[in-house]
Amino acid sequence: MDDDLLEQAGWWRLRLAQPTSDLGLQARFEAWRSASPEHEAAYRSVVEGVQAFDRSARDPAFAGPLAEARETGRRERASRADRHRGYAAVAATLVIAAGALALLQLGPGPVQEQVLGTSVGERRVFVLADGSRVSLDANARVTTRFSRHRRDLTLTSGQARFQAAHDVDRPFIVRVAGEDVRAVGTDFNIDLTSSRMAVTLISGRVAVSPSQPQGWLDTFWTRPPGRDAIQLDPGDQAIKPRGGQAVVSRNVAVQDAVAWQTGLLTLDNVTLQDAVERMNRYSARPIRIADSALAAKRIGGVFDTRTPEQFLAAVGAVFPVESRTLADNAIELRLRQEPRPARAAP
Predict the structure, then answer these.
(1) Terminus-to-terminus CA distance in the chain, angstroms?
(2) Predicted TM-score of the model (pTM)
C-alpha cells in the first residue's frame, strides 16, 4: 500500500481522535475517505493497526514506551473521556510511521543539530550530513536538526539557497516566518526581511504551508502538508507579507533571486525600507531611514553589494533626500525639507 496514503490515513485518525471546534473536519474526512477505494483501504489498515497495538499493550516489554504515550495523551487532553481516543491516535500514527512495535523500539535515533551563520558582507556554502547544500547570503542564520525520520531547518534571518538531497523518507522542511517550506529533492531560495518572506523555486517542487506545532509524535514522522498548502513549480515565487496572504507569481526570473551569489542585489519595485534592509547585509556602515514617508517609497535596479555607495547615489538621484552620519557611524536618510517661501511684508 502507498506510504503517502497510509500517512494521510494516520493523520486523519489522529485529528478525528482529538477535541476540535472545527465543524467541517468530519465532512472533509468523509470526502477524503470516499475519494477512492485506496483511501478507504488505507484508513481501514490504520484502524486494524491500532487494534493490534492495543492488544500488545499488555506485553511487559513495552511498558515504558506505552506509559510515555499514555502520559503524553493525558497531558494534552483536558477530560478523562478523551484519554483513550488520544492514546489510540498516538498508536495509529506510530503504526503508520514504521509499525507500532518496531518504531517504539527504534525511537527517533540520534539527533544532529547545527547552527549555520554568516557575518555582514560574508557569503558561505555549507554541505550538510545528508549531502544537501545550504548557501548563506551575508548576515544570515540557519539552524538544522536532522534525525532518523526528519530533516528540519529554520531560517531566522537573511537569505539562503537550499539544494536538498533527495530522500523520500525524510522530507526537507525549512521553517521561516511561521511557514513551512517542504521539499524532497529540490533547489529553492528563501529571502527573509522584517516585512515579508519570498520563496523562489529553481527546480523540483515545494509546498508552502503554515507551520504546525510539533509534539512527541513528530519525532517519528513528518506530517503531510495541509489542504491550504501552496504548491510551487519551477519558476514560481511566493511572497508572503508579515501577517498577510501569500501572492504567487509564475515564470519569474529565478536568476534575479539568486544573483546575490555573484555579488548583485536585484530589486524590483520594492519599498526603500526593504531595499535598505537588504543592502545592510553587506555594508559595515548601516543605513537608516528617518521618516516613514521615505521608507514607503519604491525603488528598483541592480546594485553591486560590494559598493553600497552606488546604492546611496542611486537613492539620492531618484528621491529628494539628505543624509548625515550618526554617532555610531551609521548613515541616516531623510526627505529633504524644501524651504518655505518668504512671507510678504505687510
Answers:
(1) 94
(2) 0.68
